[in-house]
Amino acid sequence: MDRRQRKTREAIFGAFTRLLGKRAYHQITVQDIIDEADIGRATFYAHFETKDYLLKELCDELFGHIIDTAMEIAHGQHHHSCGKATDSVFLHLLRHLQENDLNILYLLSSENNEIFLQYFKTSLKKLIHSQFAVQGKLKSSELPEDYLVNHISSSFVETVSWWIRRGMKESPEELAHYFESVMTTVIK
Amino acid sequence: MDRRQRKTREAIFGAFTRLLGKRAYHQITVQDIIDEADIGRATFYAHFETKDYLLKELCDELFGHIIDTAMEIAHGQHHHSCGKATDSVFLHLLRHLQENDLNILYLLSSENNEIFLQYFKTSLKKLIHSQFAVQGKLKSSELPEDYLVNHISSSFVETVSWWIRRGMKESPEELAHYFESVMTTVIK
DNA sequence: TATGTTAGTGAACACTTTGTACGGTAATAT
DNA sequence: ATATTACCGTACAAAGTGTTCACTAACATA
What we know:
With 188 residues, chain A is mostly helical.
């Protein structure tokens, strides 16, 4: 990839993330991004078709790593030193969110960001499906699996959202405990 | 209130609701509403400052009744014939949603409607706080009450949202059972 | 029924945002 | 060294926003 392309792409992502930290997604215009990134109008549209696609690609970049490593942990293929083998997938996700990806927290904390939340939930559903549903770790056999997977993933997103809204006072360990406490009916 | 005012107000609400049934909130412009309601531009702004305020007032109207009667039931002051006294507040809400307020379902089913969802959650939090938290019906004393109330209300909204997305195949009774099943850890 | 008040009309307004197009310039790859 | 490609600046039409204004019609009330 051309160095110029990489640079403007980074400039756009950077400007976008900075703006997301300031105000909600829907309050940000393409014009704002152009001004903040200090690029030409045509250049933006050469990279991204719309603002929504920009967010989608940013999500791809930010989530790609997190979900991939979470998948590895979920399947027991994670033999590194970052966390005990007994740590739950959720604790891993929380640590990852706190330590490495403050960008994501900006996105999450900005209100009205349903595209991002939808992306988060969809990623989690895949993870939870393979981790719990497929492996038979769900308790309730009488409820639809789809309902349970949806419940778990949206509850986790909501937990993270609550955490951020309140200033992230709790440690990842505490928060994982909260979440797993309210999930004991659902997960074995 | 002037008959003319009432009529245009109704025309605007009607047009807005109809449009919400067709496409998402953010895809609807003030221009669309004006055209659909067949009123003058200035008239719209005489009634509502912005599109967001219009949604807020619509929510006020739609939710006012539902939450009020749910509050009555929650406090055992509901002696009518509409449902057994033993029915849970959640079952009451689901019945209400299914039977009387298809407008709300339009709103909920249209994607990207976080203003509405936020309104729904906030209303529920108040209800759940007075119904469960104040009355000591929450199981877990070690977790923050605020976290639990948030968890219950957002899980309920998510359950309803799931229900609608999948075409409302389940009866209110079934859905209430689903919800209460995954909530047994949390609610006594 | 006559009268003052109020709400709606339609047109116009300045303004912002959007998405596209263009020739010119500078960085890049080979 | 040269051809390619990305970016720039500017301009453009189209659409939406929020406000103003004079005119008209509906309203409440006496």
